[in-house]
Amino acid sequence: SRQDFIRNFSIIAHIDHGKSTLADRMIEMTGMLTQREMQSQVLDSMELEKERGITIKLKAVRLIYKAEDGNEYTFNLIDTPGHVDFNYEVSRSLAACEGAIVVVDASQGVEAQTLANVYLALDQDLELLPVLNKIDLPSARVDEVKQEIEDIIGLDTEGAPLISAKKGIGIDAVFEKIVEVIPPPRGDESKPLKALIFDSYYDAYKGVICYVRIEDGQVKPGDEIHMVNTQKTFEVVEVGVVTSAHMPLDKLRAGDVGYITASIKNVRDATVGDTITGAKIRTESPFAGYKKAMPMVYCGIYPGEGEEYTEVRDALEKLQVNDAALDFEAETSVALGFGFRCGFLGLLHMEIIQERLEREFDLNIVTTSPSVIYRVTTNAGQVLEIQNPSNLPNPSEIAKIEEPIVRAEIMTPTDYVGAIMDLCQNRRGTFIDMTYLEETRALIKYDLPLNEVIYDFFDALKSKTRGYASYDYELIGYRESDLVKLDILINSNVVDAFSIIVHESTAYAKGRRICEKLTDVIPRHQFAVPIQAAVAGKIIARETIRALRKDVLSKCYGGDITRKRKLLEKQKEGKKRMRMVGEVEVPQEAFLAVLKYD
Ligand code: GDP
Ligand code: MG
């Protein structure tokens, strides 16, 4: 049948093992793009992604391959994001495939993300095709890494393609293996439409573009479609596939991967994981596993000095049209005025949004410390979800506080096991178990508070293991903990934007650190400025910024007038980046100083 000549697959890999390079090479070798059309990495199209070397949004591309058996095959290559923040999207794109290529760097071997992604693929019952990449490197250890793949992942590596994606070596073998190993789709064209949305994004001209895998049935322009989970109905405007650009077709059929547009105005109406079916004749078995994007990390975003609240709101609204996981609502801070509490999938997602606000919208913003969601039970038995530390009730009203816990799986050479256990112990981790994958490599499992991993756990792990350890985590639930709100007072006023929730045992050390940092970044004033840290109204640390003695201008006593003016101009420039907190000028970098308190 028609579907016998279709192969739908993804490439999964640990970061930097060569997923994008292999995808590019496959696109290039099937002649879908001319060399000139092909920018360095087609699948990582956002500028930001390129700079950070990560793939945030997944896309699909159709390739035509003439196989050795003489037949022409349609390959639908579905790209997956490479960061735990986006694991749900990864799982949905894998659900759109029958198989996955597992790329392993032949010099690095199997890493935590290789394994995490393999698990996600096995959850979707995918056929896995191991590929060893970077065999051109002198440090490639082909036989050892093959053995690792067999021992750790349990995949047969006999006949696994040995390739160099960069140099274009062995790519044909990959194509042939795809034909041989990955099963064709087996949908039923005569059944009602059943399509999985595995990615969607907003396009200014066409509205939301849904990337879909058609499981059963067919879809064509003019059809009325229904979103099973969001319950919205739309009329299809265009369907097609992505080659070097969007290429419209008259219809998409069972087994196909392509796109649908239907004048949809917001990605929230076409979210990843939802099932598209016919408006009149609906499928009886929508895809399982739909999840609404759940923010895990929150922070305040406020207009910087000279910036308007409405401009920030407009920018957030624009970003949200294209990002179903971005959550925001208005909030007010005593220190910062009107702004927004924003929710993100994780810290990377948060940083991306901050950067986009600054770069694409040219906004000057102030960001408060990120916070996870705490669950507070009051003495009255009420359960509150706290995303903003300032909203934590008085300690006397709190029966218990619970915090989100993640299970982390850390893969490391055995030399670093001790260092990693120290690190996890310091981050309030609970040891779960450790297994030796090989003589020289261990997999360590710890349960850790999300709060302790979101800031800089990854950096700490890398520096303690010289970059050799890799890790991955997933949220497993909530656990009661001795948490307190740490307040910072400037000139005796609590600055709400500085408040953070910390474990009782670390409050003193963190309070001191923040006071010291603020003393460094807040300029001297005409009067002495006390900086204090407090828990439940009790001062636990204190620093003082000494008063300024002389007027700045007195330095230029007798100097010429232009020099004085320059100095005044300079002061004014400096002021722009300040926030007034009571009588005290606080530079924006102070908010960053609190954020990076380690
Ligand atoms: P991804 O994070 O898995 O998408 O990895 P990339 O495709 O971005 O590759 C990461 C780095 O490895 C880049 O600098 C590539 O140029 C390099 N790379 C990819 N494939 C090969 C290869 O076969 N040989 C060598 N030497 N380098 C490669
Ligand atoms: Mg990549």
Automatic annotation (TrEMBL):
Output this protein's name: Elongation factor 4
Q: Which UniProt keywords apply?
A: Cell membrane, Elongation factor, GTP-binding, Hydrolase, Membrane, Nucleotide-binding, Protein biosynthesis
Q: What is its main location?
A: membrane
Q: Does the keyword Transmembrane helix apply?
A: no
List localization entries.
Answer: Cell membrane
Q: Which family does it belong to?
A: Belongs to the TRAFAC class translation factor GTPase superfamily. Classic translation factor GTPase family. LepA subfamily.
The record ties this protein, via HAMAP family, to: LepA
Keyword Cytoplasm assigned to the entry: answer is no
Q: Which NCBIfam families match?
A: lepA, small_GTP
Record's bilayer topology term: Peripheral membrane protein
Taxonomy, top ranks, is: Bacteria, Bacillati, Bacillota, Tissierellia, Tissierellales
Q: Which InterPro entries match?
A: EF-4, EFG_III/V, EFG_V-like, EFTu-like_2, G_TR_CS, LepA_C_sf, LepA_CTD, LepA_IV
List the Gene Ontology MF annotations in alphabetical order: hydrolase activity; translation elongation factor activity
What the entry lists under SMART domains is as follows: EFG_C
